[in-house]
Design a protein that fits this description.
The chain has about 525 residues and is mostly helical. The protein is built from 22 helices and no strands. Keywords: Membrane, Transmembrane, Transmembrane helix.
């Protein structure tokens, strides 16, 4: 304690004696003053201890992981992941993790919200994703780690922010995989109807709230992806590449046939629900751009990551956005927008109605089934790598970072992810899952945009394979677009998201803050 504020103990003894108190004209006031002054040293010490604890807490939540920490192995780290693919495979990973959800599934929920102006919704979502992709490209070229935006936030925004971003990513990947798996059952039923004339009963093909009891096709899809992921990253990427090429061919066939039956009258009225509907549709379909983040999660498994990561992010986004807009224009031009609501396996039904033939619809249904499989595969892959990265940093139990010495994959981690996603897909309807996924995706993308600005200020001399142009205007614009889409989400999504973040904070302050690798390295 500062000597200037030390209490006069002689005076305290005199004031506390019976003689001095007896002479005091106001006995109660003097006694209270004596007690307060006598207690002052302990109060000051307690306040000092509390302030020290508060400073320690603040230091912990804002501590950033040094860039060198993403490359130098630490004591608690397990066997590293294998670097097993290059630029083409990585680009196909981004396309595979993106094309499928927004076109094959979410189109039937987005068109009723915006009408024909859903094409503008795809443009808005595409612009937002493009701006964010450029930010991702810079951070990925500087910090090619497995955690994608979680790792970027850890290097720029601090530990608590990184943990919450990681929670958003886990929400984004887990719920997205569940939403995709729910939609897969629709196309599987359509495929079975066309081929064998039988379909799975609604009680076993739809979740509660959508006319069913349990979504068994969704659970089966997760199980198939689990088996492939356990074989290793190289096998999973090869399968994804083949499925992506097949899905692009099928979508090209749909665009050609649908444009041959194009009717401009289907675009009137163009925006029946105004800008509110356009923004709402853009928010709900934005989760389909999750493939951009999935590319970044592969930072520890790609050759020459400083070059290949930013290029793969940009290439995959260009392919995806072009495909989305073309298919949306062709679909609405071929069918009035009012018929999309509640239409299962929408693109397949459109082809059957246009041609009167079974084979185009069969081809598209088969392509959609494979496409949705590849998206689910990539999304599950991404979630396991996020958990792996957070566990490497000590913020989650070591269980999630144990790598199988033969397959070079986090086997136990993969089992946990598959079980959780299968449970969600089995019992939750599609619309609830879609909006919650969009929220997690947009929060993560906004954090990346802000992280670019902070990282450029803190580490201006760090080698980067790519730099965002028009800095800092472009990252700020990217964050603004993300916030606009977040504001367009329904109120119940905010409530569910707040509950998720609250649970994440509880885990961080009771477990992660005490187990952090940065805490042990600073001792």
């Amino acid at each position: 304690m500062d000597p200037a504020v030390q209490p006069d103990h002689a005076m305290l003894a005199d004031m506390g004696s019976p003689r001095s108190v007896k002479r005091a004209p106001h006995r109660g006031c003097c006694r209270a003053a004596a007690i307060m002054t006598a207690l002052a040293p302990s109060v000051f010490q307690a306040a000092g201890a509390n302030s020290v604890d508060m400073r320690s807490l603040l230091t912990s939540v804002v501590r950033c992981k040094p860039v060198t920490g993403f490359f130098a192995p630490e004591e608690h780290e397990s066997e590293p992941l294998a670097r097993s693919f290059g630029l083409f495979q990585l680009t196909m990973l981004g396309v595979g993790g993106t094309i499928g959800t927004g076109i094959f599934i979410a189109l039937t929920t987005a068109v009723p919200e915006a009408g024909p102006a859903v094409t503008i919704s795809f443009v808005i979502a595409g612009i937002t994703a493009a701006l964010t992709a450029l930010c991702y490209a810079e951070l990925a070229s500087a910090v090619p780690a497995a955690g994608s935006s979680y790792s970027y936030a850890y290097a720029t925004l601090g530990e608590l922010a990184a943990f919450l971003i990681g929670a958003c990513l886990l929400l984004e990947y887990g719920v997205s995989a569940s939403a995709i798996a729910v939609g897969w059952g629709q196309y599987l039923n359509e495929l079975m109807t066309v081929t064998i004339g039988w379909r799975i009963p609604d009680a076993l093909a739809k979740p509660p709230g959508s006319g069913g009891v349990v979504n068994l096709p969704a659970v089966a899809l997760i199980g198939l992806c689990l088996l492939l992921l356990l074989r290793g990253a190289r096998e999973s990427i090869r399968a994804n590449t083949a499925l992506v090429i097949a899905k692009l061919a099928v979508l090209a066939m749909f665009v050609v046939i649908a444009l041959a039956h194009f009717s401009a009258t289907n675009f009137r009225p163009f925006a029946p629900k105004g800008m509110i509907g356009i923004g709402s549709a853009a928010s709900s379909i934005f989760f389909s751009y999750i493939g951009i983040d999935a590319v970044a999660t592969a930072g520890e498994e790609v050759d020459n990551p400083h070059r290949n990561l930013p290029l793969a992010i940009i290439f995959s986004l260009l392919i995806v956005t072009a495909a989305y807009i073309l298919v949306a224009i062709a679909a609405i031009g071929a069918q009035p927008w009012t018929r999309f609501a509640g239409q299962e396996a929408g693109l397949s039904v459109i082809l059957r109605n246009l041609t009167g033939l079974g084979w185009p619809s069969l081809l598209l249904t088969l392509g959609a089934t494979m496409s949705i499989f590849s998206v689910t595969l990539v999304v599950l892959y991404g979630q396991t790598r996020i958990l792996y990265a957070m566990s490497q940093d000590g913020l989650l139990p070591a269980f999630f970072r144990r790598v199988d010495p033969i397959s070079k994959v986090p086997r136990q981690n993969t089992w946990v992810v598959a079980a959780g996603v299968a449970l969600l897909a089995a019992v939750f309807p599609l619309d609830v899952l879609v909006n919650l996924t969009s929220m997690g995706t947009l929060i993560a993308f906004a954090a990346v945009s802000i992280g670019v600005i902070i990282f450029r200020r803190r580490r201006p001399g760090l080698p980067r394979g790519y730099r965002v142009p028009f800095f800092p205007a472009l990252p700020l614009l990217s964050a603004a677009f993300c916030l606009y889409l977040i504001a367009s989400l329904p109120a119940d999504t905010f409530l569910l998201f707040a509950l998720w973040i609250g649970c994440a904070c509880l885990i961080y302050f009771t477990y992660s803050i005490h187990r952090s690798g940065l805490k042990s390295s600073n001792r």
